[in-house]
Amino acid sequence: MTESRFQFLQGDFPELFARCEDASRAAEAHTALLKARMALEHMTKDLGAK
To answer: To the nearest 10°, the Cα dihedral for 4, 7, 11, 13?
Structure first.
């Protein structure tokens, strides 16, 4: 398995890292876009509150 392009997130933002990984590994474009949206919503809502 190759190193993730989102490796820099893993230490400080493990949940965001997992969401980004899910998006990058999705087989279908629709699924990838949905998962990317979930990652962006997490960034703006959950991380923005902190």
So the answer is: -90
Listed as ranges, residues in the chain with pLDDT below 70 are: 1, 50
Q: Where are the domains of the chain?
A: 9-49
Q: Which two tokens stand for residue 48?
A: 């923005």
pTM: 0.80
Sequence-ordered alpha helix ranges (H) in 1-50? 7-10, 14-25, 29-41, 48-49
Q: What is the chain's percent helix, strand, coil content, to nearest 5?
A: 75, 0, 25
